[in-house]
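Kindly inspect this chain:
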Amino acid sequence: MRMVRRPLPYLPLIFVLLTVAQPSALRAQFQKYEGRQVLTIQFEPKVQPLDASELHDILPLQLNQPLRMSDVRASIERLFATGRYADIQVDAQPYNDGTRDGVIVRFLTKNSWFVGAVTVTGRVSSPPSVTQLENTTGLDLGQPYTSSGLQEAMFGQQRLLESNGLFRSEIQPFFDYDDTYQQVNIRFDVTSGPRARFTAPVFVGDLKVDSARILAATRFRRWIIHTWKPMTQVRMRQGLDGVRSLYQQENRLEARVSLESVSYDPALNAAAPTLKVDAGPQIEVRTVGAKVSRSKLRRYVPIFEEHAVDHDLLVEGARNLQDYLQSQGYFDAQVAFKEQSVVNDHAFIDYLVNTGIRHKLVMIQIGGNQYFGTDAIRERMYLQTASLLQFPHGRYSESLLRRDKDAIVNLYQSNGFREVKVNSRTADDYRGRRGQIAVFLEIQEGPQSFVNSLHVDGIERLDRTAVLSMLSSVAGQPFSEFTVAVDRDTILAQYFDKGFAAATFEWDFKPAAQPNRVDLHYVIHEGKQEFVRQVLTNPLAHTRPSLLNRNLLLNPGDPLSPTAVTEIQRRLYNLGVFARVDAAIQDPDGDTDSKYVVYQMDEARRYSLAVGLGAELGRIGGCSTCLDAPAGATGFSPRVSVDVSRNNLWGDAHSISLRTRASIFDQRALLNYTWPRFDGKENLTISLTGLFENSRDVRTFDYNRAEGSAQMSQRLTRATTLLYRFAYRRVAISNLKVTPFLIPQLSLPVRVGIASINLVQDRRDDPVDPHRGIYNTVDLGLAEHVFGSQRNFARLLVRNSSYHPIGKRVVLARSTEFGDLYSFQYSGAPADAIPLPERFFGGGANSDRGFPDYQAGPRDTLTGFPLGGNSLFFNQTELRFPLIGENIGGVLYHDMGNVYSTLDNISFRTNQHSLQDFDYMVHGVGFGIRYRTPVGPLRVDLGYSINPPYFQGFQGTQQQLLNAGVSPCPAATGAPYQCVVQNVSHFQFFFSIGQTF
């Protein structure tokens, strides 16, 4: 939101013209009636931008009072000060009805206009975009409209069009005047015309480089066919940057390249840029005394970035190089520079480097601190002692030491220690070990100052008790300018929120009778309170007015609160139906008590398309009919996704979307309808979903799922959300790789109707990469015949994660997950068991890294493929720590758990009793690397399973498995198939984005 308050420079001139320089006839007229009683005050036109009551309060000229020229001048000035008038004339006429003798005063007014919507329509060839053309006008919402401002806007648009090669463009403004609110909407109809192409540029100045190379560096011409490219602002800028890069490659660091002009040929519709070049001498930057790579020189010596060579930049480069060397362990490094004169168009800049011996910062000792603990101080310091990988030599430099000392001083001063001092000392060859240093910080805290008393003056129109209750600098509290600044912001925020835009704050203090205590004095100047006259919005093509009105929190007569104005803007953006929301106060400098609040909204596109490409990599391979590798094999699967959305459905912020995904292992189509703010409640959201999926992520079987679900999301608090869900699905299984006699029962299609409730509590400091807090989920579901389900069972899944910082950089993270499925009708028959697709399948990157994905739990006794279980328990523990530099971290982890056949069989034992025993706890340990990216940490985990399960696997074809029936594997040699004892691999690897939990 932009709330710009600009002075009106033309007002003094108007005052002079209408008062001091009035025509002599007008002055004579008023002098003629001077002193006569004012019987009537009239305004023409009768409809005025201000109410009659406001006019009565504003005008010094009053009814039944003598007419004075000074009152007329003051009335004109007060009316102009409101900002609502562009021209005012005053006329006086005598009046005598036999009983009264006086004058009638008439104000002839012409209203001001204020900028409303500024739009661009027509045939616009991008670039520039319509938005760029609108922004370049400089016509700000709510500001006074002037003809000169319009001309500047059109000139800026024309210049933008021409800079993009559109020299034949035409701009025609159209106006829509709203007399009621004095607002003018301006529409620029733009016909951009054909875009000009570049032609041979002209190079002037001291080139010192062949013009053909300069032309190639501009890239104005295509590479092979040598035709000229269309002219755009971006291509022009890239061309100039290309020429600058060419001269930098020639070590001409002082080269100046600028666009002097563009010559347009209407006959050819071609533009010839004129580039002025001042090559300057060749300058080579070298280091003497130590080797520093050219890339490091370009990074730390700013003359390469600034394209200039001056003393200040060279000094900065020396300081940067010194800090870099100190960060590499050369804590005694000294860097100076020496410039050589230009000889034969060549000069050298030598950085003289004395690295000294390489040190290691092994200790930081802090003394003298009593008020703050050492840990609290260390948390604010950049200095770090040496660590194995992250900082092999520690992190130290003179600039970092100065920064840490300043941080400590600020910490103490903000808590009342106004005379604190921090001294530092560095010890070389600490404890007799060459190259090791220690830093000693000695803190002289000094006395702590306290507030003896606080006196606040000037609070008249706000609740004094409420204001004072929010202050920090009260009697008995530490005194510092920091807490005073906090109080200032707190007080002014309350005043601004109540419409006191001109409120100011002053303070002073004096020593109290007691030592180290002060008497504090605040003075508030409230100023004038402003109110909302009305909230104005532009007409919308698709969005319902009721949706808009539900989000407009301001009403006529409310205090004009910038906080409320911004909050409305945020709420409108959060609806997801507006691409742009501008908010402003109309005529912000006008001297009136009530003002219009204006919102200008551009509706977003209602249709959107997103296409994505990705891949899956891990132990996921194998074909849908093969019986080999039941524990998974390394595989790769490309993935493509296409999403189509229709937003702002029915003009009420509803949306419908179709999301599709296809890979070798999974094909999915999901249709979702979302109804936010259900029943007008901000915390309720309804969504309806239809899903079709064909997948073989679980290698035991392929499945085909058709599902419909309804969900209501209720946000209870900022951290807690409840989800109420009902789902009805039908799952059909194929290519089932289990004992033949189980296939008829497990492969039957199953319909499940399940109602569930899910509680989510998220108190993490950062959901992407948390360092502290907790994350809890509880999911409870019930499948019953009354819901149309063929199986009756209950489902419980609970997860608790917590994050505990250890020191400043290390985090101990843990997550525990428990789940159980309970069948109400299980009688021992396989048909009455929990359906195979509804069972728990676990193991892998997010549960237990001692398994590949979905490989935990019970297995088929003949083929060895996982069958899933009715209960699960997993516990993951990670120690997250910095590894190398600022962006690469490391993780040591321990995972334990399994998927169990039933709740009664959950066991913490670590040994497997037999090849048919899978109800024991599998442990996995490993090491991971996290690389910080804007979308979350890039994760690589390398794990070792300590006690992976062993099982009997059938090696043969599915037909051979069917032929074998339920008989055990034959012992006879020469059989076309065999049973082989296999195991889940001890070594696992995982690759993904985001923390494990």
Notes: The CA atoms of residues 716 and 877 lie 30 Å apart. The longest strand covers residues 634-649. The chain has a mean pLDDT of 88.
